[in-house]
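Q: A small favour: would you put together sequence and structure tokens for a protein?
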Amino acid sequence: NLAPRNVFFELGLNDISHPDSTLDSYLSHYEKIIDAVRLQLPNTQIYLCSIFPVTDEALKEKPEFSQIETYNTALAEMAKRKNIHYIDTYTFLKNNPQYHEQDGIHVIREFYPIWMDTLVNNSDLKNLL
């Protein structure tokens, strides 16, 4: 019986690139996950991370990624509506494309400590350190 203090989610980039995916289906699926976590772990803090951006070069190859900001706006609104924490990692990565792999989609290993610091500093994990 695990009862984590915090659960972090970062979902969506693959959903956006899937041809059958829509914003409504993405949000519906995400809400089901959140509701299930809340039901099973009522004392756990839930944090939703924004969908990572892609580079301009990747956007040229996969124009469906132009929807990332729209998805993030809807995700932030859902988090507010459900009283869940939202962490913006999009802005940092958008302004620092050097943390992307050459494909412009995935991040390089040097980004992970930065991401971890962002999660810690925007959650109650900072109170544990």
The chain has a mean pLDDT of 93. The helical segments are 13-17, 23-40, 56-61, 68-81, 90-95, 111-121. Residues 23-40 form the longest helix (18 residues). The radius of gyration is 15 Å.
